[in-house]
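Usage example:
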Amino acid sequence: MFVAFFRTLILYLTIVFGIRLMGKRQLGELQPSDLVITIIISNIATLPIEEIDVPLFMGLLPILTLVVFEVIVSSVSLRFPKLRQLFSGSPVVVIRDGVIDQKKLRELRFSVNDLLEELRSSQIFDVSQVDFALVETTGKLSVYQKYQSQSLTPQMMGLPDQPAQNSPPYILICDGEIYKSGLELAGKNMNWLKRTLEENKTSVQAVYLMTAEKSGKYLIVPKEGDA
Amino acid sequence: MKRLIIAIILMTVLVTVCGVSTWNLYLQKEQLAAQVEELRILVLENVPRMELKAKAEELLAEWKQEEKIMVIYVRHDSLDSITRVAASLPALIHYEDYASFLSQLDVMSACLEDLWKSNLPNYRNLL
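Running the assembly step on the lines above writes:
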């Protein structure tokens, strides 16, 4: 039993080290330790299933060990930044004031094409528009554009804030069922809902989708065949 | 914080389970090894066949009892090899094949020792 326990820990640390060594390019969205947990658990879980000779406990113990170890490491990392850096790495600045840091890119084994591809996925086609870009510990590129290249916002134009305009459309009715939480979020009540449905000459059961914003704007999609 | 406490408790439980299972394995191994050794001495002392057979059956029954617990945490193929040896002992005594009986006792001792060693967290098993 101790063999399975210690082997799991050794494997975990080895794979985290391996993933960290491979660098951010190998990561998708996950942190290195998350990725390792995913890889190992998916493999361990199949062992007791495939081999009847292996006791189920031999599969459960490593999985629980990994999960518990991960929780402990992530909790301890919150207190000790050095440990967090060891397990997850740290973000790396690759563009500063429109200038690409080629040395850092080489260290990350990012080609300029990779960088441009990431920029394009953020709707940026000109490096000089970038004020600041960094490769996150997950391998994703985060970009902050220069002021002149940023999209125009009401704040830039000095327009006053309109909280009612900030509300997204909330779902009130979905497939003939009322969503009370949506009603609350939109600041509406059942009386308003009934009244609105009557005004539109429909009923709850006949509505496929109904959304509403705090401003009062609403959308009703009737069920096909019931309209 | 709650999650960390649960994790620490779980880790303690896991380490305890590992410790208890290893300790249990050690105790069972010691007990069975003593019984095997006793059988060997009885054969060399020319004890009557029926008494030997009874002792061998006792060993088999004891092993079957222990096996029921061990299957939870030990790979079954290791246990199966010991079961095969233990099951052959009464028949070997019955037909007075003492040479094979002694050799099977040696096999059983080796299997028990191997079972114990393979569950120790030493460098040989970890690497």
